[in-house]
Specification:
About 45% of the residues lie in helices and about 20% in strands. The protein contains eight helices and six strands. It starts with a strand and ends in a 17-residue tail after the last helix. It is α/β, with parallel strands linked by helices.
């Protein structure tokens, strides 16, 4: 994932990110503060294709409600009225997108969105071009707490490998093919 400073976010930067189809990390003072997901026609097509049956059902229900002169109900209100609890999403962003023009996007807006737990729809010339997911210290702390045993295990494993003089494998190494391991012999076989 490439990383761009908050001041480097411009229309051409977002266009390049959309063309690559890859997420873009957003930093402020060298610290990751958000992840930007470019909205490309290919991505929208994929979302529609994956959720086509749900979209068709929702459109048919809305048309039926309108034909019966019933008011349309937002998803959050329907959960409240039925007493059901909202399914917990894997990420902390629960509210609908708040649209922000790219020229108005700054650290204050990102920090405010992170505090509210909301994602931002970034627009350029009035067109949605990206979804920005702010990263709050509270969310990072929650991730660490949820994965503390795994983190401690991996730290211990890395310390043991380092003590044996083995090379540590990091994410940069994973992009390269791993070295072939020599075949192992099983005792008593073939002798």
């Amino acid at each position: 994932m490439k990383i761009a400073g908050i001041r480097q976010l411009t229309g051409p930067t977002l266009k390049a990110a959309a063309e690559s189809g890859e997420p873009l990390g957003v930093s402020n003072g060298g610290v990751l503060c958000a992840v930007l997901l470019p909205v490309s026609p290919r991505w929208v097509h994929s979302l529609v294709e994956q959720n086509l049956s749900r979209l068709v059902d929702n459109i048919q229900m809305a048309e039926k409600d309108r034909a019966n002169a019933e008011p349309l109900v937002a998803v959050t209100r329907s959960w409240e009225s039925t007493g059901e609890t909202e399914p917990a999403p894997p990420l902390p962003w629960r509210s609908p997108l708040r649209k922000v023009a790219i020229r108005k996007l700054g650290m204050e807006v990102i920090a405010e969105a992170a505090a509210r737990g909301e994602a931002l729809g970034v627009t350029n010339s009035g067109t949605l071009c990206a979804v920005l997911l702010p990263i709050s210290p509270r969310w990072v702390e929650s991730l660490v707490e949820q994965n503390l045993s795994r983190l401690l295990y991996n730290i211990g494993l890395a310390e043991r490998e380092r003590a044996r003089g083995e090379q540590l494998v990091n994410l940069d190494h994973l992009e390269q093919p791993l070295p072939a391991e020599p075949p192992t012999r099983t005792a008593g076989v073939g002798t």
